[in-house]
UniProtKB/TrEMBL annotation:
SUPFAM superfamilies per record: lambda repressor-like DNA-binding domains
Listed GO CC annotations: cytosol
GO molecular function term, any single one: DNA binding
Keyword DNA-binding: yes
Superkingdom classification of source: Bacteria
InterPro entries per the UniProt record, alphabetical: Cro/C1-type_HTH (IPR001387), Lambda_DNA-bd_dom_sf (IPR010982), TransReg_Diox_bact_type (IPR050807)
Residue ranges annotated for the HTH cro/C1-type domain, each copy included: 9-64
Protein name, UniProt field: Transcriptional regulator
UniProtKB keywords: DNA-binding
CDD domains: HTH_XRE
Length: 106
């Protein structure tokens, strides 16, 4: 069963077009070790392995350590959403709030 850490690696790997093999090569680790990081319950990579993985994925190491951190793509989408929301008139904002409440309930 994978963890938040493992899911972050797997999702970024896929978003950036890496296979297990290609990311393992880029980060200087074996494919099986990378698979373990993505899928094991409690992965414990060394600082060196974590830094190499972050570099290969063009990410900061802190992204992998912070369970609340989102990917740059998610942050960009959130910023665009709030920017668009800010440009709405009062009526449209109220409609959006009601839509959000409906989604939160379901």
């Amino acid at each position: 069963m994978s963890t938040i850490f493992g899911n972050k690696i797997k999702n970024l790997r896929r978003e950036k077009g890496f296979t297990l093999d290609s990311l393992a090569d880029a980060a200087g680790m074996s494919k099986s070790y990378l698979w373990e990081l993505e899928n094991r319950e409690s992965p414990r990579p060394s600082v060196e392995k974590l830094a190499a993985l972050a570099k290969a994925l063009s990410m900061d190491v802190s992204y992998f350590l912070d369970e609340e951190a989102t990917s740059p793509e998610e942050r960009h989408l959130d910023q665009a959403f709030f920017r668009n929301y800010g440009e709405l008139d009062a009526t449209a904002k109220e409609q959006m709030r009601r839509i959000m409440e409906t989604f939160k309930k379901s």
